[in-house]
From TrEMBL:
Coiled coil: 220-247
Designated name of the protein: tRNA(Ile)-lysidine synthase
Cited function: Ligates lysine onto the cytidine present at position 34 of the AUA codon-specific tRNA(Ile) that contains the anticodon CAU, in an ATP-dependent manner. Cytidine is converted to lysidine, thus changing the amino acid specificity of the tRNA from methionine to isoleucine.
Catalytic activity: cytidine(34) in tRNA(Ile2) + L-lysine + ATP = lysidine(34) in tRNA(Ile2) + AMP + diphosphate + H(+)
Localization in the cell: Cytoplasm
Gene name of the encoded protein: mesJ
Originating organism: Longimycelium tulufanense
Length: 328
């Protein structure tokens, strides 16, 4: 008997490998996994692989389809996707309607609403499998680089980041499309994916093809490889920063001289974490550089104002955060 089509086999293997990694870490103990499916080729190919792989591992598979209600006909797309998942033999399928609101662009707001809905709807303790591919990873890395959003962002998405799991990060989009075709599955083609008003679409259709041409191929793989290397570096630095925090922390404050003697990469991480614990969010590189100057170029300067009305100052050789009292 002929085996499965190579693309179908590749998707199943990628999923099996991720589950092999997730199992010993205790992420499959509930015996259930969820698949977040938009109906597009990536998540549909993943859904098909999930029913196959789960049967062999005695896991139940639950489909989650989010209806963002941003386009006319979105409910029909969601319903059609749900029908496809039921036909694949999913143990349960849910369509979740969300309201896309809040700050930032519509893409960011939709993502926030989607992740919150998926987290709320997954079976308790279950991983949620997402269909991000190597192409998505390459786009994320390039976007992070271009926007200067820091090493964590250039390090891209993690394959296993509970409750999220991205088994297809090593596969090209053409593999998922081929897998769907081989299985006779008809993916939904999102008109947004061709709309040049979206940054990602222009990256995908204009910037990356040009880079591929100029650098003679291999760019997506190179970007994904860079992300994986950077993730290892960032993880190592984060661990060192955790240790350093313990050494320089004096109650709620930080020893400015001890922290000032550490390399910049660690100083910034310690400061971010320390301020994060104190409820400071929205820190920019500019804030961190000014706080850094309280250590490296200390000449009695005043405090550094932070988002949320807090101030970091140096007093008696220690960095402390407080909320200035308003006079009058
Ligand atoms: N409406 C949705 N409902 C459920 N899951 C979604 C939805 N949109 C995206 N996802 C999940 O997030 C992953 C990445 O989403 P993104 O928007 O980057 O991709 P996409 O273009 O929708 O990909 P796909 O080809 O899988 O549909 C998808 O593969 C899927 O697992």
């Amino acid at each position: 008997m002929a085996g499965p089509h190579p693309a179908v086999a590749a998707v199943r293997t990628a999923l099996s490998r991720l589950l092999d990694e997730a199992e010993p870490a205790g992420h499959l103990t509930t015996g259930a996994v969820a698949v977040a499916c938009s109906g597009g080729a990536d998540s549909l190919a993943l859904a098909a692989a999930a029913t196959h792989v789960a049967r062999h591992r005695r896991l139940t598979v639950h489909g989650l389809v989010v209806d963002h209600r941003l386009q006319p006909g979105s409910a029909e797309v969601a319903a059609r996707t749900a029908t496809q998942l039921r036909a694949l033999g999913f143990d349960s399928v849910r369509v979740i309607e969300v309201e896309v609101t809040g700050p930032g662009g519509i893409e960011a707001a939709a993502r926030r609403a989607r992740y919150a809905a998926l987290d709320g709807a997954r079976p308790p303790g279950a991983l949620v499998l997402l269909g991000h591919t190597l192409d998505d990873q390459a786009e994320t890395v390039l976007l992070g680089l271009g926007r200067g959003s820091g090493p964590r962002s250039v390090a891209g998405m993690r394959p296993l980041d509970p409750p999220w799991a991205r088994p297809l990060l090593g596969l090209r989009r053409e593999t998922t499309t081929a897998a769907c075709a081989a299985l006779g599955l008809r993916p939904w083609v999102d008109p947004h994916n061709a709309d040049p008003r979206f940054t990602r679409v222009r990256l995908r259709t204009e910037v990356l093809p040009l880079l591929e041409e100029v650098l003679r191929g291999g760019v997506a793989e190179a970007l994904a490889r860079t992300a994986a290397q950077l993730r290892e570096d960032c993880d190592a630095l984060d661990r060192l920063a955790t240790d350093l925090t313990e050494r320089v922390r004096v109650d709620e404050e930080l020893d400015a001289a001890a922290l000032g003697a550490a390399p910049a990469a660690l100083r910034r991480r310690v400061l971010r974490r320390w301020l994060g614990f104190r409820g400071v969010s929205g820190l920019t590189d500019h804030h961190l550089r000014r706080i850094d100057a309280l250590m490296g170029s200390w000449r009695g300067q005043g405090g550094v104002a932070l988002p949320g009305g807090l101030v970091v100052r140096r007093t008696h050789g220690r960095l402390q955060v407080d909320r200035p009292q308003h006079r009058g």
